[in-house]
Amino acid sequence: MKTLTSTSLKPYHTFGLELNAKEIVEANTVEDFLLVWAQKPSEPKLIVGEGSNLLFCEDFDGTVILNRLKGITVRETKTEWFLHVAGGENWHDLVKWTVENHMPGLENLALIPGLVGSAPIQNIGAYGVELKAHCDYVDVLMLDGGHTDRLSALECEFGYRDSVFKRQLKDKAIVTGVGFRLPKQWQPVLGYGALSQLQDKENLTAKDVYDMVCEIRREKLPDPKKIGNAGSFFKNPVVTKCLADRLLAAHPNMPCFYVNDAEVKLAAGWLIDQCGLKGHRVGGAAVHNQQALVLTNADKATSKDVVTLARQVVDTVHRQFGVKLEHEVRFMGRNAETDLEAACQR
Ligand code: FAD
Ligand code: EPU
User: Fold this and answer.
1) Of the candidates 9, 19, 18, 55, the residue with the CA atom closest to the CA atom of residue 229
2) Which locations, inside or outside the cell, does it occupy (predicted)?
3) Residues 88, 329, 95, 186: what is their CA dihedral angle, to the nearest 10 degrees?
4) Same domain, yes or no, for 106 and 204?
């Protein structure tokens, strides 16, 4: 385990806010994680991958543990590739490596920031594919007894931006590794937006899909290395069919996706955009001009700027459409996870 000399959180989360932790350490082995929990039983602790889904609302009065578990092993059968990937590997590097090595399946998930160990937490998804499509199992370190366990994909209870790790196992388990199952018989997923252009391409490869996903993402989403952000700030809201029908009557071009007979998923980015909020600023925080679902650190934003902006977006969308947006980004308070409501009271 390595303790860093600096306590600045700025390099360790993609919003790039000027905040500090009490201590920042790197965990290179499973034993390192156990050591922190043994040495600091009553201190607040937070596991961080690349901090690309985190908003620190204030300084963190505890230890941040950076996941640095490394290693990939591959096994194959006649019909499938089986990968075991340590939680500290970079997600996009893994996707790129599988595509280059002719192990297709993860290409739609290219360029999602973050680590492999964080991917199951919210069941990352993009362009019609979610992690759950190829997740075989998730290895965890259980913090109550210090033992390791292997959860099947079913036991992870994956949903839209959701899993058991955000509910029953929240603060109880550390993801140490993920198992992937990639069928050799490739089924491209081209249903989402511009990807359908590839439908008629001869000799289509996973690399073609990967390249197009990277191109679309580079056009739409701000690069956190240049403009601080945490991707979609809010989840796409799932509303009753009754409300969706009412909104559709007034806005026939409103994008929506039928979840089941009774529920419809709306595009939060479209709702925010329709409220005229693109480019809207509070201090140094802004609604992104290309993608209204992304809130950015446009110019030395403080956490208060981002929180106030998020509040204004939620209130405006609620007033205009009667839809309550929930944040996808995880809010961290001084000692523990918090949320927009609580962060606004501060
Ligand atoms: P962090 O932000 O470091 O952590 C996220 C949460 O998981 C925290 O609560 C943390 O404590 C917990 N955690 C992290 N690692 C572990 C572990 N090993 N065990 C237990 N808990 C852990 N997401 C999508 O789903 N689809 C997208 O298309 C997408 N696009 C994005 C684009 C941009 C530009 C950005 C900045 C973000 C985007 N995201 C997207 C969100 C983000 O990339 C994912 O949520 C990613 O999985 C977060 O990984 P991370 O390593 O940065 O996690
Ligand atoms: N839209 C607008 N204006 C905007 C933004 C979007 O009108 O400013 C419209 C688009 O034209 C489109 C619809 O809203 O009709 C959906 O937009 P887009 O395809 O860009 O996707 P999204 O719903 O905004 C979701 C995920 C992204 C993921 C993309 C691609 C959520 C919360 N977000 O965004 O994930 O990359 O689809 O699959 O589900 C993330 O979670 O951080 C993330 C970036």
Assistant:
1) 55
2) Cytoplasm
3) 130
4) yes
Spatial distance between the Cα atoms of 187 and 109, rounded to a whole number of angstroms: 15
Active-site hit among 89, 107, 161, 303:
161
267 lines ligand 2 (CB under 6 A): yes
Q: Which ligand is nearest to the CA of 89?
A: 1
Minimal-distance CA residue to ligand 2 atom 34: 232
Give the pLDDT of the chain (346 residues) as one tens digit per residue. Answer: 999 999 999 999 999 999 999 999 999 999 999 999 999 999 999 999 999 999 999 999 999 999 999 999 999 999 999 999 999 999 999 999 999 999 999 999 999 999 999 999 999 999 999 999 999 999 999 999 899 999 999 999 999 999 999 999 999 999 999 999 999 999 999 999 899 999 999 999 999 999 999 999 999 999 999 999 999 999 999 999 999 999 999 999 999 999 999 999 999 999 999 999 999 999 999 999 999 999 999 999 999 999 999 999 999 999 999 999 999 999 999 999 999 999 999 8
CATH assignment at residue 182: 3.30.465.10
Query: CA end-to-end span of the chain, whole Å?
Result: 34
Instruction: Identify how many contiguous H helices and E strands the chain contains and give both numbers.
Output: 7, 21
- Do 278 and 195 share a structural domain? no
Give the number of the atom of ligand 1 that is nearest the alpha carbon of residue 126: 28
Domain span at residue 203 reads: 72-218
Is 232 one of the catalytic residues?
A: yes
CA of 101 to the centre of ligand 1 (A): 25
